[in-house]
Specification:
Elements lengths: L1 E2 L6 E2 L35 H5 L1 H7 L10 H8 L3 H33 L5 H41 L2
Antiparallel strand pairs: 1-2
Helix pairs in contact: 3-4
């Protein structure tokens, strides 16, 4: 007995098509292996992992990106301008490589760590994260426009325009 390399479901050795995902089984993974074969859909850039790094990672049972949260905790205790500078630099040194790694390899990690019922479910979940990127950008633009409008109104009120 082997597992489908696309969805990870058990298959019979003589099956040519997976009963679960309907993909051709010309090359199946070895039965009993712990590593699930990664489908091509999970090898693409993962923008949800990049944009929402630690939130996305926890949702997919990947915990090393939580290191990103250490820097804001350190910032609370940073005293003096030099320490604040060090903490800010440390923030970039830690978060940027993790985010780039998640962009490049996040899909594969998610596929292997989280139990998706099918490739289609995986794709839908990742599309949902991309939608949230879009929503967060819209909210950010609206907040910036509101803030700038309030700032201009306040400036005009102070200077009597």
């Amino acid at each position: 007995m082997a597992n489908c390399k696309f969805c990870g479901c058990p298959t019979q050795n003589n099956e040519e098509i997976c009963e679960h995902c309907a993909k051709e089984l010309d090359d199946v993974s070895v039965a009993g292996t712990d590593v699930k074969m990664v489908p091509p859909e999970a090898k693409k850039l993962n923008w949800g992992a990049f944009w929402f790094s630690w939130l996305w990672a926890v949702n997919h049972r990947i915990y090393f990106p939580l290191v990103i949260l250490i820097v804001p905790i350190l910032a609370v205790f940073a005293k003096g301008e030099r320490m604040e500078t060090i903490v800010n630099v440390l923030s970039y040194i830690i978060s940027i490589p993790i985010q780039v790694f998640l962009l490049l390899k996040g899909g594969e990690l998610a596929w292997q760590r989280r139990d998706f019922d099918s490739v289609e479910e995986y794709v839908e979940v990742q599309k949902a994260w991309v939608r949230w990127i879009f929503y967060s950008l819209i909210i950010a633009v609206i907040v910036c426009l509101l803030f700038s409008t309030l700032l201009v109104a306040y400036y005009m009120k102070i200077h009597g325009h």
